[in-house]
What does this fold into?
Amino acid sequence: MSEKAQIILDGKTYEFPVYEGSEGEKAIDISKLRDQSGYVTLDFGYKNTGATTSAITFLDGEQGILHYRGYPIEQLAEKASFLEVSYLLLYGELPKAKELNDFENQIRYHSLVHEDMKHFFEFFPSNAHPMGILSAMVNSLSTFYPKSQDPHRSANDRMRTAVRLIAKFPTLAAISYKNGLGHPYMYPDNKLGYVENFLYMMYGLPTEPYKVDPVVADALNKLLILHADHEQNCSASTVRMVGSSQANLYSAVSAGIAALWGPLHGGANQEVIEMLETIRNDGGDIQKWVNKAKDKEDPFRLFGFGHRVYKNFDPRARIIKKSCDDVLKKMGVNDPVLDIAKQLEEIALKDDYFIERKLYPNVDFYSGIIYRAIGIPTRMFTVMFALGRLPGWIAQWKEMVENKEPIGRPRQIYTGATKRDYVALKDRG
Ligand code: ACO
It folds into this structure.
């Protein structure tokens, strides 16, 4: 591109190349700024920093657009299966029938976890949060597959690791739930589809096998697709950052799970339901809680509201809201927490504080209500998010490895004490 950006510092003009993405997004490449001028850029929370170029997901926060590999999220959520979308994210194209069949078979083939892993689970406290268990277990997978420790070994090895991880993740997620209940673990049933198998392992018991309800499986399939990727968010950036040191995929994804767990990111779905229940138990005075969220002296925030990049609406929240109504109707669920959610949304969307700051319901505002309706316990909500986000994390890692990106290493501006001499302990007063 011939366009250049000029930066004037201390009276001197520096020129930098301008990048343009396939959807017209523009960026100034300032990677040589420090070499040429001695300055670095400062951007707390990376609010305006592009860390990479990527061909996986496009989103436009102002217009509320989200595409995976060019395909609108609305079409994928309506028509595709989660494994089809996973294939799309990993390989860049929708699979042909045989390709999808082979991919599904490979995932089935790898769905068991090593029997020795059972011992690890035995030592977690019974009230351990399933996200903590999942992160630890995904990292420990790397110890069973030493070849995975070299991400540059071969493209085939990378894909085998990716398939293994997608295959074993639902098994580990279901065990992390069973662990808390003290129930026996269920082995996968490879006659079932991916989503159905996960539900079977979650809810089945050796004495009472679970019969999968297609309404529940459909709803979950849609939710997983909506969460499958979201470009350079906190957890995906973590996966890329950890992977940039050439750590193995299991470890990079384990770090991504930890990043997702926080209440400002994926952990918000658990917080939303807990917040709605608190409001209900407190008498249901919604205005009181909206006022608390606006009060700068009060640490309370409305969970499920606001987003770093969506400043108009979150397209995923729009799809989920509709799906939420459908699921509750089909299942005959009448959830008072949903009524509170609806009233809260109505009040907040008319409030100047939320309007001025462009704070809209995000994907987590409604996902928890569907999870609740289909019987997923609150502490498993963020695990569901992780299950959905897994193919996105892997696609981001794969892209970074294949593009041979350098190790991630931001600069800083030091604000601490300037040089001073060591004082012996006896002289410190
Ligand atoms: N409730 C009340 N006020 C809010 C909220 C909220 N949920 N979100 C943002 N604000 C206010 C901030 O106090 C700030 O106000 P100010 O300008 O007067 O200081 C302004 O809106 C901008 O907010 P920031 O925190 O600066 O925005 P940022 O982009 O850094 O944060 C975030 C985005 C973390 C999502 C934030 O909106 C938030 O905390 N939301 C609640 C948690 C949540 O739902 N997270 C899930 C996000 S979606 C996902 O990760 C899948």
Notes: The chain has two domains: 4-65, 71-410. Residues 155-181 form the longest helix (27 residues). Residues 45, 264-266, 268, 293, 301-308, 357, 359, 362-364 surround acetyl coenzyme *A (CB under 6 Å).
